[in-house]
Amino acid sequence: MRKLIMKMSMSxxxxxxxxxxxxxxxxxxxxxxxxxxAVEQSWDAGLIIMGRKSFELMAPYWPTSTDPFAPSMNxxxxxxxxxxxxxxxxxxxxxxAAAASWAQARIFDGDLARQxxxxxxxxxxxxxxxxxxxxxxxxxxxGLVDEFRLVTHPLALGAGLxxxxxxxxxxxxxxxxxxxxxxxxxxxxxxx
Length: 192
Fold this sequence. Notes:
By secondary structure, the chain is of the alpha/beta class.
């Protein structure tokens, strides 16, 4: 059985985005070593899953990006979870392997917990969950996340979108590792 790993960046006051979904602070508070660690970690995944909204934002960007994350984002298979249906993303004349990787994403529109259990039962490398607050809250509610990689950036937003609000019961985690980077970003890796 493969693991489901949630990687999420957050402010020191626990928000994963500003009140209107702003995430520009991620780039202002990262340093080269924290970015290098994140890129290296991204290759651990056998499947990247995200919600529909995140997919629709990311799919047009990554195939032509020169960002260090682009190779892993474009080569690792993707899965899209949606409650409202999904019509796909157009890549126009782009017939590259990168665009094909996004166009061939698996679409999941049924029961989230059941589909996550089925994915975890498949052979392969871990499943990496990325994306927005709503999708992450829904994943946490399933109780099926095996590992949380919480990247805390050195800033307080004061308001924004959390992922651990509204828990039905306390979520007890076991600290497995901590990484500290020169710019003040820290990574706490928790198991359940």
